[in-house]
């Protein structure tokens, strides 16, 4: 089987991979050849005896910066191997990773992913090569590898044939602009807590309405940013269409 999605990961720690992506859905899909993974050890492209890949920050400051020349050599090698793949770099200075970005990537041929370490990457690399900087959130990790796991995991579960029996995930958090409703499973009673009555009623219209209300409540409380956007989209819709959409739901 020719993989529909290939990942080439440039890293100082190739032995970390496939790591969590070797298990469960992603692991099975890797074995089945639905996606493929290459790791490219950045250190192999160093030129000195010590395989140096970093140097002190120009202008001063703590830590070390990954050298543009070494990174470019490793990246050019990856691009030669897989010229059709877009190039991403994991960095907290990047564009935020969202579910729609994940969908866009998952529908493409895969990605070359550059993982940073230390204080990050010499900025000239981004000027000299076509690279999309991507951030997985507003916090600082010690390396890009865990960010690459996150990005790849999110893409792989969307590839055709990976999620098997489940739906395309239309109702999941973010797909509708809201967080998903809370989930429950048996036992019906646990530590004096019951599964909400409505979910056991068998009345699908009531269940749908309850889930929508819970999604809205939790989004409003936990993610005022998403709620604001969701509300503004609802309000800007023409009235007639808004009514029709509500009835359809
Ligand atoms: N000094 C940098 C952070 C470096 S963290 C800054 O303040 O912007 C070291 C490496 O971890 C980065 O080069 C990047 O590859 C990765 N990393 C850290 N946080 C990340 C995030 N939120 N998203 C994606 N990659 C991240």
UniProtKB/TrEMBL annotation:
Keywords attached to this entry: Cytoplasm, Methyltransferase, S-adenosyl-L-methionine, Transferase, tRNA processing
Q: What is its main location?
A: cytoplasm
Q: Which residues form the tRNA methyltransferase TRMD/TRM10-type domain?
A: 8-228
The reaction(s) catalysed by this protein are:
guanosine(37) in tRNA + S-adenosyl-L-methionine = N(1)-methylguanosine(37) in tRNA + S-adenosyl-L-homocysteine + H(+)
- The record's EC number reads 2.1.1.228
- The membrane spanning regions, by residue number, are none
Q: Which positions in this protein are listed as binding S-adenosyl-L-methionine?
A: 116, 136-141
Superkingdom classification of source: Bacteria
Q: Which SUPFAM superfamilies match?
A: alpha/beta knot (SSF75217)
Which GO terms of type biological process are on file?
Answer: tRNA N1-guanine methylation
Q: What class of enzyme is it?
A: transferase
Q: Identify the GO cellular component terms for this protein.
A: cytosol
UniProt-annotated location(s): Cytoplasm
Q: Which family does it belong to?
A: Belongs to the RNA methyltransferase TrmD family.
Can you state the subunit structure given in the record? Homodimer.
Q: Which NCBIfam families match?
A: PRK00026.1 (NF000648), trmD (TIGR00088)
Annotated protein name in UniProt = tRNA (guanine-N(1)-)-methyltransferase
Q: Which organism is the protein's source?
A: Zymomonas mobilis subsp. pomaceae (strain ATCC 29192 / DSM 22645 / JCM 10191 / CCUG 17912 / NBRC 13757 / NCIMB 11200 / NRRL B-4491 / Barker I)
Lineage of the native species?
A: Bacteria, Pseudomonadati, Pseudomonadota, Alphaproteobacteria, Sphingomonadales
